[in-house]
Amino acid sequence: MTSQTKAAPVPTSVQFNLLTLAAAVTAAVAATTSAGLGWPVWAMFMGWVGFFTRGHSAKEALFSYLCLTIGIAFGVGAAACVGALMPFVGHYAFGIVVFAVALVVVSLRALAPINNIPAYFLGLITFFAAHVEPGVLALSELAAVSGLGSFAAWVAHQWQGRIKSRF
């Protein structure tokens, strides 16, 4: 069995350059905004990547962002659970909590429209990569900065759509 993918139409060099410029300008503005607010720029890009895990309409982007944010919340809860279990079961706490969180996240694949498993895991990764104490502050800051990234990716995608229709 072979797999064939349909090649995307090749843009003209002018269109290609404008599409690239639109993404670069949007990313630069989002990164500067994130840094200016004291937010981790890498976490903004987690939201950017999260945008591309599903469709690109505003509604689909919102659901992808919601899944990413829920993933961050799961990370907060998981870290708190590991901390609570460690005194009793030691390093086994990680296995217990990862099993429980994975069970929940993977089960959510049946709950459309919030069934974006990659976005949940991006949220979990975002929380654990931030190395912050679990809590409302961590959740709100990481949700805000990843929201900026998701919005920026949507803006870049919209801008690129306009470029494609004009050139």
TrEMBL record:
The keyword Transmembrane helix applies. InterPro entries: DUF1097. Keywords: Membrane, Transmembrane, Transmembrane helix. The chain crosses the membrane at residues 20-51, 63-86, 92-112, 142-159. The keyword Transmembrane applies. It comes from the Bacteria. This is DUF1097 domain-containing protein.
